[in-house]
Amino acid sequence: MREAAAGLIALAICRLQPPKIEQIFRPLCSILRYPIGGPTAVRAQATANTNEETMPATELTLAQANAIIEGALSEGARLKLKPLTVAVLDAGGHLVALQRQDTASNLRPQIATAKAAGALALGVSSRQIGVMAQERPHFVNALAALGAGAASAIVPVAGGVLVRDADGKVIGAVGITGDTSDNDEAAALAGVAAAGLSAQA
Question: Between β-strands 170-177 and 160-164, what pairing exists: parallel, antiparallel or unpaired?
Answer without folding.
Answer: antiparallel
